[in-house]
Design brief:
By secondary structure, this protein is α/β, with parallel strands linked by helices. It has two domains: 12-105 and 183-336, 3-Layer(aba) Sandwich (Rossmann fold); 113-177, no CATH class. It has ten helices and twelve strands. It has helices at residues 23-36, 58-61, 76-90, 132-136, 147-150, 154-170, 194-207, 246-254, 268-283, 310-322, and strands spanning 49-54, 97-103, 116-117, 129-130, 141-142, 176-177, 212-216, 257-262, 291-294, 302-303, 307-308, 326-328. A six-stranded parallel sheet has the order 7-2-1-8-9-12. α3 packs parallel to α7 (194-207) and α9 packs parallel to α10 (310-322). It is globular, with a radius of gyration of 21 Å. The protein starts with 22 loop residues before the first helix and ends in a 15-residue tail after the last strand.
Amino acid sequence: MLPIPLPPHYNPASVGQVWRVPYQERAAQAAQWAQRYQISSVASDRFKILLIAVDVQNTFCIPDFELFVGGRSGKGAVEDNQRLCEFIYRNLGVLTEITLTMDTHRAMQIFHPVFLVDDLGNHPAPMTVVSYEDVRSGRWRFNPAVAGGLGVTPEDGQEHLLHYTKALRELHKYDLTIWPYHAMFGGIGHAVVSAVEEAIFFHTIARNSQVDLIIKGRMVFTESYSAIGPEVLDDAQGNQIAQKNQKFLQKLIDFDAVIVAGEAKSHCVAWTLDDLLGVLRSRDESLAGKIYLLEDCASPVVVPGVVDYTAEADAAYQRFAQAGMHIVRSDQPLSEWPGLSHN
């Protein structure tokens, strides 16, 4: 296989912008590119590599959108996605499949402001952290005005909020964070970053590989950072309100190598990997060795003067590495990655 350069249509300066992908034109170019660089269909892959792009959506990745992940540099997600696009183009011939996870929300969910009120009826400001003690003391409570729209009673809503924040504590999860309205289903923030979408579409045509979509975050009464399963699975009575995505888990296990990138390193990426690690350990600890983390294609949540999850993200990646996962960079040839050099 010939070395694959970046295609002439790719413009790194456009990665932080929203625009329409010219699909028909790119499809023709991708077919020509595959012929020129001897890129075969994925049906011929003997060693199957999956790339997971976690939540590379406008809401997280475009400056001035609701939850732009800037990291400490302030340019985090834009630079991450520049590197991700280039990684996809340079490795078109070896990436078997690309899976996109997509955070998908509506307004009335447990982590959005309208869900809670204080004694004066005020909603918490975005980035407010709500602890179990805050709910137990009455500092924040379930908003009775949304009960009818959610099909519950105000009493049930309050009981669940108390149970939920307590469960987060017991499960050693982050306390409930109130986020700005984001990744709203059908909105422009929900869409995949244009440049990344274009790169994935180009891969689809060049390799005849259908992109897979994992929709997460639709559950009203629980957060869903992880693409594998929501934060809390049961209600106050022990009834199941959500479940883990067993089909997605099996996909991760079935591939020979799994590469992970996306946003945010401290939240959706970290919790997805944490869930995955737990499953792998329960089956065979050596399976962690087939997971590769693109450390330069993910950034933590940082809101200057408000929150900074850099330390938590770094600690999580260190924990994953100690468990056997590999920390790699997008500009490293895959032939130099541990465990891939002989494939």
